[in-house]
Structures are given as structure tokens and as C-alpha cells.
Amino acid sequence: MEPSSGGGGTTFQPLVVLELASTTPEEAVGWLLSRIRERQQNGGAELLVEQLSLGAAEGGEKNNQNLFVVGASWQRLLHGAEESGLFKEYSDGSMRGFTCANKHKFKGFTGSGDGFLSMAECQYIIKHQLEALRAKEETHVPGFSQAKLYPGKSIIRRLQSKGILVQMFPLHDKEELKRLSFSWYQRVRLSLQPLDAIRDYFGEGQALYFGFLEYFTIALLPMAVLGVPYYLFDWEDYDKYVLLAVFNLVWCTVLLEVWKRYSAALAYHWGTLSRKKAFEEPRPGFHGVLGLNPVTGREEPVFPSVSRQLRIYLVSLPFVLLCLYLSLYVMMIYFQLEGWVLSVHDEGPTLWTEVLTYIPSVVYAVVIEAMNLAYRYAAEFLTEWENHRRESSYQNHLVLKVLVFNFFNCFASLFYIAFVMQDMLLLRQSLATLLITSQILNQLMEAFLPYWLQRRRNKKMIRKVLKRRAIEEKELPLAEQVRLEADMSTYLGTFDDYLELFLLFGYVSLFSCIFPLAAVLVVLNNITEVYSDAFKMCKLFKRPFADPAGNIGVWQLAFETISVIAVVTNCALIGMSPQVKVYFPESATQLILWTVTAEHLLLGFKFILAFLIPDVPKHIRVKLARIEFESLEALKKKVKHLLMHFKLNRKASEA
Amino acid sequence: MEPSSGGGGTTFQPLVVLELASTTPEEAVGWLLSRIRERQQNGGAELLVEQLSLGAAEGGEKNNQNLFVVGASWQRLLHGAEESGLFKEYSDGSMRGFTCANKHKFKGFTGSGDGFLSMAECQYIIKHQLEALRAKEETHVPGFSQAKLYPGKSIIRRLQSKGILVQMFPLHDKEELKRLSFSWYQRVRLSLQPLDAIRDYFGEGQALYFGFLEYFTIALLPMAVLGVPYYLFDWEDYDKYVLLAVFNLVWCTVLLEVWKRYSAALAYHWGTLSRKKAFEEPRPGFHGVLGLNPVTGREEPVFPSVSRQLRIYLVSLPFVLLCLYLSLYVMMIYFQLEGWVLSVHDEGPTLWTEVLTYIPSVVYAVVIEAMNLAYRYAAEFLTEWENHRRESSYQNHLVLKVLVFNFFNCFASLFYIAFVMQDMLLLRQSLATLLITSQILNQLMEAFLPYWLQRRRNKKMIRKVLKRRAIEEKELPLAEQVRLEADMSTYLGTFDDYLELFLLFGYVSLFSCIFPLAAVLVVLNNITEVYSDAFKMCKLFKRPFADPAGNIGVWQLAFETISVIAVVTNCALIGMSPQVKVYFPESATQLILWTVTAEHLLLGFKFILAFLIPDVPKHIRVKLARIEFESLEALKKKVKHLLMHFKLNRKASEA
């Protein structure tokens, strides 16, 4: 990162863009800018900020003039790094919280500021500092009497929730992005993703997602290799799946345990493993009546937790149950359709009726996807309405709602076919149709739809992009770059990406013994997913702020829940297989009892295993313990020092 | 607590007694005393210590002259309180880590030292300070060339492991003890135990045990009340237990969740909930060859973790399995005996053969207890030999070994009778015999055996005690008190007490629907347990050091495991009951499938419940968050202050 006096007329390196509503009065703009520029001891953010001179709008369109770029001095960024608790590599190779006092002991610190903090880190610092900008005596935003402010509360959050601050996003780094996209997806190769480079550009949260995607794909390879011959040579002999089911059982347990350790190693390497969570601000959408915050003792909007509980249990829960019932109803319609089609085919089988038999499955798969999508919006609306105070609580409730419904919606029919109808041929066909249809739809929705929408929305912009591509060497003026990026879609986080992986993991771990090609399909899907995700991250979306995540969060729990269900399902499938049934020719009861006993033992074993395997590899635990020990020693030395002073002083005063 | 110049010739309040081996050379004694007395800045403990003048031994016996009493100045105790991270009540009613800088802001601090720190706290501080006494340049204990010392390692631990320090224990406070024992067990009453007084005298670990015992007993009352009419009116109608089984199911899940919250409230109230764990020293028994500690980078004895793993998996694990096999073997012998006795009774039933039918169960119960005891010692030996570095790791491995065997040994026969033989009458009889016999044996072993041993061992001492009782008013000289207490048995911690509760919890939650009187028996046992435990803590044992525990540790997990097994067992018992069987007159398979499904749903529900119910009550979470917030604010203020200074300095230097 080099400080440059770019094309748009700024004298500092622009890092973050703020877009205010075009109707914002001068008064509010002036106030905000002065608060951002003010010194820290006066309660400001002490950052550099300038309005973008956009020039005349082309083609007579009226562009929003309220675009601002934010930057900071090198000293300010270092202080910000300390305040936001950034971890950097120390001279001894360990990762430690950066402090200005020890700055020369960190690897790569040269004093001139060149390259020590990556651009993503600088942008994260700026965001952190902007969000930490707090109201003082102001009771409302100047010029907006309804936008109330409370002492000590974040100004930026308030402006966001009131729609005055339209968006805040970090700028892309064209050079860096070109290098990253070249090594990531622009050449076809048999190598791993450049996770460190992804982390440097997009932050740890993104890098962990791509790391998990890659890990999951590689972990699927043995199953895919095992699956192909099964599929090729035993097509009709669908009941020889005991071996695959046992393999599944072990695989999905080991997979997640190893991932936990691998992810801890990655997070340690990136300095986010032992990083402490900051005190969480209320999320922008939170609202309430004025009351006393029991923690800070200050006056601010509060929302009684009883009301929230009531909303959750009296509205959200019944709504979720209703949706589940609806999903069940649709499933029953599908089975009726399926039965009707089969009867038509049986009456007079022609090529057309043969094709017809596949129609209900495909339609059902499309309906499932549509229901998932619709439910997704409903869940977001409901969770928003539940009015959670903290982002983490909002996320947990949203994830829980979405996961339960998606799981039920996608897998209910498969469970019904497997355990109620016990029709393994239909199960195989259903699974194949569901998997293939959902993959095709997902790829369409994820990569091509945003691309197409973007094209339609700003054809003019695309023309500019093309122009830029044509004159690749020539620098684009800052103002145009900002305008271009401001109109790009916003990347909404890894939620949908993880959700898709979650369902794929479900298909593979629950039923792939019935349809061994599933693993192959998922591997193929994941490989294209890497490319399409990388493409959309680099080309289609605004750059997201780095998210210093130490693990994949609630998704670890979600995947582990699936793996527990997978044990039960695979045991049941084994118990139902003709291969096992021959050992109990007389008594079905005996067979069931043995199956249940085995399943309980396996579940117990799984929990013991999860308990025994440490979540963090030993060499990292030793490193963390060493850092803790050293800080303890330093503290002891300090105490000893103080004690000596204290005693000397006492002696002196006594003498 | 009043500083007193007691009877034994000390000029300070004696708090802790050190007993060195009688053969310790003068040189070593002198060195240790000087290290204890030395100032802190020179690496000493800065405590007061004096040898006890014991006078002529009575009856010509040779008493150990190497008894020392340790105390400290008031200032030293306050510093020690800060160093050991003691939590005290702050002026605003919250619990905070004590610091000398803020001492006047803590409730009850008067400056004179009277009553602010309880005697148990002072003793804990002294212990902490003694254990933090570290070797400097010494390579071995003077006079003991084989007792090697390593810089920075605890001297006291080394002396303990080499047998030079025979024991270290805190002194009883006779006045306090009299008050405590009066309010605790010396009057029969219908009130709760004085948990706060127990905590003040014995520490948080003890108080939590007694709190759990009381909680468990009260929680059993509804079951006991429900059980009596069941037992009285339906004696032979043993299959009407579905209601009880369902009650059991709910009860054992709710019980532990509520306890977790109650225990958190207690621990918060006592200031141990958010207290951080200190850096753990190697346990006294740990040994190894000289190597580099990867954490501290210092030279000290290390033991490769591979060797430990080998010992665990190649020796301990096979040994445990062998013991389990042995237990199974004994069980089979019991069943043969049982069968033989029944056949004798059936051939010619007389009163004698009637009595004879109870003999095998009683004998088996006694054998189980004996095997548990023998195994307990073996497990301790093995775990010691595994050479764990840290006390917590040693404890976990010991608890795991003992729990698995005891659970198997006690419950294997019951599971066999219930699910293989399916003989509910025999199950009821077996359960009753096991429970009653083990309770009688336990009470004997726990209270009367130590009492009787103590009597035998020091009849002379008992005579003194009697003399003391006769002249209750007159103060016993310190030297005699110390000698008396040094000869008392050492209290070995709450391990055996929790183990007993664990087994009782198992009997009740697993099978009490078959034998509803079990809850009544356990309640009666627990009530006598409170009295006998209180009696032995106060009268029979040396005072233990306070253990600042924040929860019941690994036992919470152990009880939760039982409650999971209880869900499975109760579901199976319900499925086997004739009441349920009538609903599935045709198909046993249907019945089993329904039972299994219900069981899985219940298990899932249980996990969701455990996940949803917060472990710490909300009002305590708010208080903790407030303290965290305030310390964060204080830090911010400090940083702001520093920043201002820094800028002023820069300005000054620039000007």
C-alpha cells in the first residue's frame, strides 16, 4: 500500500467511501465531517475526509453528490490498530496484539509505514474508528430533529438506521485485485486456493469460508472415488450400500473434528484465534423506548426482553411451524403427482410418459428452492421485527430459523421415502433429481443472475468497465472508480454460501450411500463454486469490510448437528439393508434392537471422540500458553517494581 | 479474626502449620525459614514464621519437634489478597477482584484489618504465597543433595514431593467452629444449611458440595412424595410405572439445568464465578528428565506426552477393561448363586430358605462395594504412574477411570436384569438390596470408621479432647492445639462424597420407576449424610485449605451423562411396560420403532433445552457485563489520558 495522491483530487490515500442521502442538508454534512476530523481528545475520530468532486454528470443524469472518501495519517492508523485490537506477527514468530509502545518488535515494521498494515487492515481500522465515533451533548443530528442521539452511542450506527448514511464501503485496490484474481481463478490449475492472499484482501471471515469450501471438497474426494465404481457396476444392486454407510458414518465425524483443528491453525496463523471480542454496540436496526441500560447505567433506547420473548414464542415460532406444515403439504402433493404420473406410465408406457415420470421430481425441486428463498426473506423480516439488540443474537436467531426450515424442506421427502415408504429406488431417483436441480438453480442464481442484473442496471457503467479494460494500463480517475463501485451490488456476507454447503453436506452425509454419485456431483459443484464465488467477490460486488473471525461460528454447530443426524440415518439404512437382514432371518425385533444398540454405542463413541480430541492443535496451545506466561511474567515484574517503589517511598517518608 | 498472641509463645496470629520431617537437618530448616521470612523484592515470601516450642513429650514418646506456625502482617495479607486474585464485595454490591489501590472502596474495609478478610481467606493467601516461593540460584535443598531445585519452580511443591515437608495445614478457629457446628448440625431443625458460614469457614469448594447435596435432596422430595403411595398401594402391580418413568425423564433434565443456574448464583455471590484460573504449577508427584519447558523456555523436569499416552492406552486402558470383565464375571457368579438359592427355596420352602433368597443380593452388594474400594486405590496408583503434569489433568483422568468402573460395577447387574432377563420383580428386589446395603456400608465407612480409627490411633489425644470439653471455657495452649490437629486425619477432598451422590443419582434416575421407595431411601440417606459429613468436617479432620471453586467441575458433566443415560433407560422401560404393550397388540416391531423414535426426539429436545437455557441467570450476566464495561471504560480513559500526554509532549518537542 503506497500513499498516493490519486486522480480524484484527494491528498491522502482514500480507503473508505461514505455515501450520504442526496437530500441530506448542508448542516448535517458539515457536522458529520467536523466530528470525523476533530481530534480524539475532543471526542472526534481524527480521520481525513474529503468530498468527491464528481464533475458534470454524463448524459444529463443527476448523480448523488454526497460521496466522501475517508483516509488517515500513518500515526493515526497505528493507534487505530492498537485500539481495534489487531494481531500482527511478532519478531519471535508468534501472533500478538499490536501496541504502539512495542511497534518496533513486530515483524515488517519499518517506521515508514510501507506495507506493514495491509489495505484491508487499514480499512477495517477506519471502519472501527468511524463506528466508535460517539455522540456527546448533541440530542439529535443537526437538520434531522427526528434522528435522536444519546450520549456515548455510535453516531454512524444511528445515521445508518435512519437512512441518512446510505452506505459505507471500502475501496477496491485495482493492482492487488488483479494479482489476486490471477492467482485465484483466472488460470485453470491443480493447486490450492491462495488463502493467505484472500485473507489479506478480503479478511479472515471470507478466507475461512473459502478454506472450508476447499477442505470440504478435498474431504469428499475419497467418497467420490469410492462412489464411482459403486455406481458404475452395481447400478441395480442398490442394497449393497452397507460399506458406504459405514464409511459415511466415520467420515462425517472425523471430517468436522479435523476441520476444527485446521481452522484453529488457520485462525492462529492469521491472528484471530485468541483475539478478544469487542464490546458489542446495538445493531443499526435496533429501536426501543428511552430507558436505563442496566449495564452502562446510561439513558438509551431499551426494549424489554419479555416483549422479545413474546414475539419469538407467540409469533415467530407458530410461523415457523406453519411453514413446516406447508412444506409437508407440498410434499404430499408431490407424492400424489408422482403416483399419478407412474400410473399413467404403467397404463401405456411410451417415451413421453417415461420423460413424464421425471417431471414431478424436477418441479418439486424447483418449488423447494422457491420456498427456501421466500422463507429466507420472511425469516429475515421476522428476526428483524424481533428487535434483537446485538448483531450476534440476531444472527443466531436468523440462522436457527433458516436452518430448521431449509433442512426440513429439503430432506423431509427423502426421509419419508427412505423410512416410511422404504422405496430405495425412488429414494435414489429423488435424491439425484433434487441434487442436480438445486445445483443448477443455485449456480444460476448465484453467479449469472447478479451478473445479468448488474449488466441491465448500469449498462453505462459496463461500457466504462469495458473502456477501462481496453485501456488497462491507464489509471481510472478516483471519482469514476468510486462511482463505479458505489453502484456495484453489496456482498451480503457468507450466510447463503454456508447455507448451500450445509445442504450439500446434508445430502452427502445422510443419503449418499443410496446414491454414491452424490459425492461426485458435490465435488464438481464445489469446484465451480470456488470459481463463481471468487469471480463474484472480485468482479461483481463491492469490496466487503474484513471480518476478523476466529472460526466459522454457528455453522460449526450446524454441521455437527447434521453429522449426529447422519449417524442415526446411516444406522437405520444399514438396519434396513437386505444384506443385514439375512443375519436375522427369523426375528425383525432382534434386528431392530441390535441396530438401535449399535446406533447408541456409535453416538456415545462420537461424543467421547469429540470430547477427547482437543479443538486446538498442541503446538498452537503451547504457543498461546507461552504468550500468556510471558504477559504474566511481565505483569509480575511490573508489580514487583511498583512494590519496590512503594517500599522505598515508605522508607523515605519514615526516615 | 483478631490478632492474638496465643498460648504457644508466638507474637502473631498463627494461621498455617508446616511440619517438616523429623530428620530434616538444621541447615535445610534454616534455609527454608530464611526464604519464607525474606522480603518479596529479594524473592522471599515475607511471611512470619516461628518454631513451635512443644515442651516435654508426655509419656516418654518422642514428638516431632519440626513444627512451625506461619502468619503474616496485615499489610502483607492485603497484598497477598491482590496477588492471589481474591474477589470481595465492592461498595456497589458487586463482586470484584481486590486491589490495594482501591481497598477503601470495598465493603467492610475499615483499615484496621478487623474482619475484612476471614481466617479461611488469610490461610488461603498464606498457602498461595508459600507455594509461589520460587527457587533462585539454589541447585538443591541445602542438606539434601538429591532434592534438586530449578530456577523459578515452587520450593514448597519440591519439598512436598521429596517428603521433607510432611504436611501443611491451616489451623482450626475454635470459636468460629463452635458457632458453625451449632448452627449446622448440633440442633435438629427444619431449615437449610448455613451455606455462607460453611463457605466462610471451609471455602467455596466445600460449600458448593453441601449446597449440591441439599439441592439434590430437596429436588428428590417430590419424587419421594410421589413414590410412597405408589409403593404402599401398588406393591405387586409393578408395571404401572409409566407415569413415574415420564416424571423421571423430565425431572433429571430439569434438575441439572436449574442446578447450573443456582450454582452460578452461589459462585457469583461468593466471588468465584468470574475469577480467573492461576497459571498451574506441576503437581507435587510429577517427575521427569531435565529438558526445556516449551512454554516458559526454562530448564526443568519434563515428561514426553507420548510416553504418557502409551502408559494410558497400553496399560491403564487394558487394566480398566480387565476390571470391567472381572466385574462382569462376579455378576455372573451372583446370578448363578441366585438361581441356585431359588431352586433350593422352590424344592422345600421354609423360613430359612426364604431368608436364604436374600443372601446372594446382600453378598453381591458387599462385594460390589469392596471392588469399588479396591479399584479406587488401583486407579489412583495408575493415574499417579501416568505422571500427569497438572493437577487438573490428573483429576480428570482419575475421575474418568473411577466413574466408568463404578457405574459399570453398580449398574451392570441391574441393566442385565431389566433388559436381558426382563424380570421386573427381581429388578425391584435387587435394586432395594443394593441400595440399602450400600447406604449402610457407606455410612459405616464414612463416619464411624474414621471416628473409630481416630479413637484407636490417639487415645491419648482423645483424652485431651475430653479434658478440653470438660474445661470448655479454658483456652487450650497453642502448642497442644497444633499437635492435636497435626494428628487428625487429612480430609481428602470432595471426590468420594461426589462419587457417592453420583451413584445415588444413578439409582434414582435410572430405575426408581421400578422401585419408587428408592427416592425415599436416598432422601433419608442424604439427610444423615449432611449430619455425618458436617460432623466429620468439623470434628474428625484437619481443616482443609479453602478451594475457590466456581462450579462443581467435572461432576456436572458426570451427572449430565447419567441424565442422558436415564432418558434412554426410562424410554426402554416405558416401551417394555405392559401398559404400553396393549396399544400395540399385534406388532412388537411397531412398538419398538415408536419407542426408539420417541427416545430420539426426547434426546434431541433435551439437547436443545440444555442449549437454550442460559447457564448463568440474567441478573448475574448483567452484573458481570457491567463490571466488564466499567473496566473497559476505565481503560479507555487511561488510553485517552496517555494519548493526550503523548500529543502534548510531541507538541512541546516540536515547538
From TrEMBL, chains A, B:
Keyword line: Membrane, Transmembrane, Transmembrane helix
Report if keyword Nucleotide-binding is assigned: no
Q: Does the keyword Mitochondrion apply?
A: no
GO CC terms, sorted: plasma membrane
Q: Which domain of life is it from?
A: Eukaryota
Membrane topology value: Multi-pass membrane protein
Which residues are in the Anoctamin transmembrane domain?
A: 198-626
Name of the protein this chain belongs to: Anoctamin
Q: Where are the transmembrane segments?
A: 207-229, 241-259, 312-335, 355-377, 398-419, 431-453, 501-524, 591-613
Annotated GO molecular function terms are: chloride channel activity
Family, similarity comment? Belongs to the anoctamin family.
Localization per Swiss-Prot or TrEMBL = Membrane
